[in-house]
Write a structure and sequence with these properties.
Helices cover about 35% and strands about 35% of the residues. By secondary structure, it is α+β, with helices and mostly antiparallel strands. A 5-stranded antiparallel sheet has the order 4-3-2-1-5, covered by helices on one side. Strand 3 and strand 4 form a beta hairpin.
């Protein structure tokens, strides 16, 4: 039983860290262009795409500004279209501009 408690604490720390990272990603998207590495749920392929939520690059609809949940809706800078990314598939992100 003690091992279950240890596993739950580790899982909780991982989830808290992941949530902090996603909040940081959302903040970065609101002010910058961010290169996000994620895995496609359809194909299983890894993608590196530049996304933003910064008003400097395009107008952000109100329903996207207050988004929450297990998907991240952001604007693909190169293809100039909105995409949704499953948060659990995000491997990394870095500010590029």
């Amino acid at each position: 039983m003690e091992n279950m408690g240890i596993l739950r604490r580790k899982e909780k720390r991982y989830m808290e860290k992941n949530l902090m990272d996603i909040n940081k990603l959302r903040t970065n998207l609101e002010t910058s262009i961010v290169l996000i590495t994620f895995q496609s749920l359809k194909s299983g392929k890894m993608y590196n795409r530049e996304y933003t939520l910064c008003e400097k690059y395009m107008q952000v609809p109100n329903h996207i500004r207050g988004q929450s949940g297990d998907k991240l809706i952001c604007y693909d800078v190169e293809f100039q279209k909105w995409e949704d990314i499953e948060i659990d598939t995000i491997e990394s992100f870095v500010i590029v501009e």
